[in-house]
Amino acid sequence: MYANFIIAIIGAYLIGSIPFGLIIAKAHGKDLRSIGSGNIGATNVSRALGRKWGYICFVLDVLKGLIPMLAMLPLAAPISLQSHAQKIIILFLWLAVGCAAILGHIFPVYVKFKGGKGVATSFGIAIGLWPYYTICALIAGLMWIATVLIWRYVSLSSIIAAVTFPLALIVMIILRPDWHIAALWPLLIPAVAIPAMVIFRHRENIKRLRAGTESKVLQKK
Question: What are phi and psi of 32, to 5 degrees?
Answer without folding.
Answer: -60, -30
